[in-house]
Amino acid sequence: MDPGQRGFSLGESLVTLAVAGTLVTVGVSTVGDLLEGLRLQAVAGDVQYQLMLARSEAIKRNARVVLCKSADGQTCTAQGRWEQGWILFQDRDNSGTREPQEPLLQQPPLVPGGWRILGNGPVARYVSYGPLGTTELTSGAFQAGTFTICRASARAVEGRQIVINAGGRPRVQKVWLDSCT
User: Fold this and answer.
1) pLDDT of residue 122
2) What CATH number does residue 167 fall under?
3) What is the mean pLDDT of residues 20-42?
4) Is 33 helix (H, G, I), strand (E, B) or coil?
5) In whole angstroms, what is the distance from residue 91 CA to residue 103 CA?
6) Which pLDDT value is given to residue 177?
7) How far apart are CA 129 and CA 170, in angstroms?
8) Percent residues over pLDDT 90 in the chain
9) 41 CB contacts (<8 Å, ≥6 apart)?
10) Strands 170-177, 157-164: parallel, antiparallel or unpaired by DSSP?
11) Could you list the residue range(s) of the whole structural domain that residue 17 is in?
């Protein structure tokens, strides 16, 4: 190269572009992972909030309040998963399902597509809070259970579990799942 000329050779330019391309690719996947983690936290936070709201409403009203799966925003269903939607209502007849005369307290917004919210056996259909803020099945037995929230995937995926203890308090924990289907 002539000492009076400035610039880069073709080889130097190609190496620079290759390094820059690699850095951009790594940066984009890292940002994508970060955004996915934030979405997971948001969905888990929404579910935890609804559980805490149900508990507080039961205490405030001194009555049983239920959070149940709902496909239509008005009635409870035993079918499907929690991501289809849910409703919060005062359960005056202690049935775990909403009757037309029972007040609908809240119908939360829909969960974004592609997410799974799975309730294990005790919370597969509903979560019921009594006047003392404890979870109770309609039979009167205590209700403790776990919700698992994850992005639909056949591969291993990060998720969150919301564990409801015997006292009715929900807590969130991070988990890794083999798949989320």
Assistant:
1) 94
2) 3.55.40.10
3) 73
4) helix
5) 8
6) 95
7) 12
8) 70
9) 160
10) antiparallel
11) 10-177
Query: Is residue 58 in some structural domain?
Result: yes
* Top-confidence residue, 23 or 60: 60
- pLDDT (tens digit, 9 = 90+) per residue, 118-172? 999 999 999 999 999 999 998 989 999 999 999 999 999 999 999 999 899 999 9
CA-based R_g, the chain, Å: 24
Q: Tell me the per-residue pLDDT of 3-22, one tens digit each, with 9 for 90 and over.
A: 666 776 777 777 776 776 66
Q: How far apart are the first and last CA of the chain?
A: 61
**Is 4 domain-assigned?**
no
Does some domain include residue 1? no
3-state SS, residue 39: helix
* CA dist., res. 97 & res. 125, Å (int): 9
Q: Residue-wise over 141-157: b if at least 16 C-beta within 10 A, else e?
A: eebbbbbbbbbebeeeb
Does residue 131 lie within any of the structural domains?
yes
DSSP E strands, the chain: 65-69, 86-90, 104-106, 115-119, 126-129, 145-151, 157-164, 170-177
Q: Characterize the bridge pairing of strands 86-90 and 65-69.
A: antiparallel
pLDDT (average), residues 75-103: 95
Query: Total domain count for the chain?
Result: 1
Rounded Cα distance, 111 and 165, in Å:
24
